[in-house]
Amino acid sequence: MKIAIIGGGAMGGGVVRGLIEGGAVCASDIVVSTPHPEKVSDMQRKGVSVTTDNVRALDGADIVVLAVKPWILPGVVRQIAPALDIERQEVCAIVAGVKSEELASWFGERLPARLSISMPNTAMAVRESMTFLVAVNGEFPLAEKIFAALGRVSVIPENRLAGAMALASCGTAFAMRYVRAACEGGVELGFRAAEAKDFVAQTLKGVVKLLEVPGSHPETEIDKVTTPGGITIKGLNAMERAGFTAAVIDGLLAAARL
Predict the structure, then answer these.
(1) Which whole number is the average pLDDT over 28-38?
(2) Burial degree of 12 (CB within 10 A; 0-12, 13-18, 19+)
(3) Which 8-state DSSP code applies to residue 24?
(4) Residue 113 burial (CB < 10 Å; 0-12/13-18/19+)?
(5) How far is CA 254 from CA 36, 249, 251, in A?
(6) In what order do the strands lie in the sheet with 30-33?
(7) Cβ–Cβ contacts within 10 Å for residue 41, how many?
(8) Collapsed DSSP state (helix, strand, coil) of residue 96
(9) What contacts 25, CB < 8 A, 6 or more positions away?
């Protein structure tokens, strides 16, 4: 599979690094087009081809991944559309806040037979992304294959994408904010910041494994560690009095613009 990635920033770079480090694709089968080649020099050293010419990047590609800012995307689409092999080449746009009809309109009469929108998160760099795919035109087997190599994939209807992003894309920042807060609390409890971070990270790894057990539920796991009159229930109740659950829900709704 030959992959052309337009954009070498956080998202485009995350795709490349995740695929290479996971062994899913040979570096020599990837071309990255970016106006800032110096920012992807690490990829180039690993064998990725780098160019500043978006049209040239399409040559021989089986799938074209558009990973540029939303306000840049219309111009990029109009630039590459005439050069696309719309029957053979699959196109996937990593973009938020752009409707499928809008994206399709930018291609005009050069609409690819296989076009999708994807929304991964930054954990794809370590192959643990939660990626959502939305159909724009036709099926998208190569996009599914790429992002499955970078974590988990869920194909969803477009009207659920905003909520999914709040949970899993913005959710990365929300989870990191909890980790940061826990580390600051750990320092106040007498631990070094690095120690606290390691303790919290390992705890979260354990939480993930517990939730992956069939039949597991957060409340069930909470009940296992909240003994009557114990310290855990005191901590949970203090967090709830400060509005912990309400704050999380409010943040998700705000992120999803609901």
Answers:
(1) 95
(2) buried
(3) S
(4) middle
(5) 34, 9, 5
(6) 49-51, 30-33, 3-6, 63-66, 90-94, 115-119, 129-137, 151-155
(7) 10
(8) coil
(9) 1, 3, 19, 146, 149
pLDDT of residue 125: 87
CA 71 to chain centre: 19
Pick from 172, 178, 175, 182: nearest CA to 151: 172
Contacts 24+ apart (CB under 8 A), 199-202: none
230-257 mean pLDDT: 96
pLDDT, average across residues 184-205: 97
> Considering only CA atoms, which of 41, 26, 54 is closest in space to residue 149?
26
Joined together, the tokens standing for residue 98 give 């752009």
> Which amino acid, one-letter code, is at 82?
P
Contact 59, 69 (CB under 8 A): no
Helices (H), the chain: 10-21, 41-45, 54-57, 73-80, 100-107, 141-148, 161-168, 170-188, 193-212, 218-225, 231-241, 244-255
In this structure, the number of other CB atoms found within 10 A of the CB of residue 145 comes to 15
Cα distance between residue 6 and residue 93, in whole Å: 10
Q: What is the mean pLDDT of residues 88-116?
A: 96
Length of the chain counted residue by residue: 258
Strands 30-33 and 129-137: unpaired
What is the per-residue burial (b if ≥16 Cβ within 10 Å, else e) of 208-231? eeeeeeeeeeeeeeeeeebeeeee
